[in-house]
Design a protein that fits this description.
The structure holds two protein chains of two kinds. Chain A is an alpha+beta fold. Chain A contains three helices and six strands. The longest helix of chain B is centred in the middle third of the chain and has 16 residues, at 49-64. Classes of the chains: A alpha+beta, B alpha/beta. Chains A and B meet through helix 1, helix 2 and helix 3 of A and helix 2 and helix 3 of B.
């Protein structure tokens, strides 16, 4: 199934840039990851963003998607992912619908300098997300949790 | 496509995309590793926190037995992930 796409015209420094937004809904399951990666590859290829951006978006998106699947409580069965190039950044938005309030921002920080015997599972994914993209924002409205990932395009 | 297999010379061969959907498959194979080993990432193109967590768990288990794992042939992207997560200090990379 092809993603829904729409062309937008964005003002940028006096010029006009064309941007294609793609969005698709995925079953809220880990088994959807292959389809999620396919959407990201389609976006990266269409925008000519290159393997480094693709790698970063893949990891960051997977971490948020799997976090939604594992920890968000609620009857929602789909996750919406929208990808878009806005001026000089790539934006990925993941929205989980009909979920109880949950803030990824409350996750405890990971001590990346801890010795092996003190390493504990959990938290590493969000740490990677924050390290791999330039901005992560969270929004909870009308029982929907949206996480936006922004990667600057140099 | 992801694959994990045990090879001669106490080597664990990882290949393809090691994402969260492959966690159980990898866990089952890594469970059988009982001695020091080399984890060969020559054909591994991708890994996320679920895979990193399994490798840390393996290293923790081996350390209790006086053994250890080390990684070889990591791509620059994968090396960056290990560095960002601080795992390069607990999982030696050659």
């Amino acid at each position: 199934m092809r993603p829904k796409a729409r062309l937008e015209r964005l003002s940028s420094g006096g010029g006009i840039l064309a941007s294609t937004r793609r969005e698709r809904r995925f079953a809220k399951a880990i088994s959807s990851l292959d389809q999620v990666f396919a959407l990201l590859k389609e976006f990266v290829d269409a925008e000519g963003l290159g393997p480094d951006v693709e790698f970063r978006l893949n990891v960051a998106t997977e971490e948020i998607f799997t976090n939604f699947v594992k920890y968000n409580v609620g009857p929602g069965s789909e996750i919406l992912i929208a990808v878009e190039r806005r001026a000089h950044e790539a934006v990925v938005e993941l929205t989980d619908f009909d979920v109880e309030p949950f803030s990824l921002e409350d996750a405890p920080p990971v001590d990346v300098h801890a010795p092996l015997e003190q390493r504990r599972p959990g938290g590493l994914g969000l740490h990677l997300v924050k390290s791999l993209v330039d901005k992560v924002s969270f929004e909870y409205r009308h029982r929907a949790l949206k996480v936006s990932l922004r990667k600057r395009l140099d | 496509m992801f694959s994990i297999e045990l090879a001669a010379g106490d080597r664990v061969l990882l290949a393809g995309r090691f994402d969260a959907s492959q966690e159980e498959k990898a866990r089952q194979v890594l469970r059988s590793v009982q001695a020091s080993c080399i984890i060969d990432c020559q054909d591994l193109s991708y890994i996320s926190s679920s895979g990193l967590g399994l490798l840390v768990a393996l290293q923790l288990r081996l350390a209790k037995q006086g053994a250890s794992a080390r990684l070889v042939h990591l791509s620059p992207h994968l090396q960056e992930l290990f560095r960002l997560s601080g795992l390069d200090s607990v999982l030696p990379i050659d």
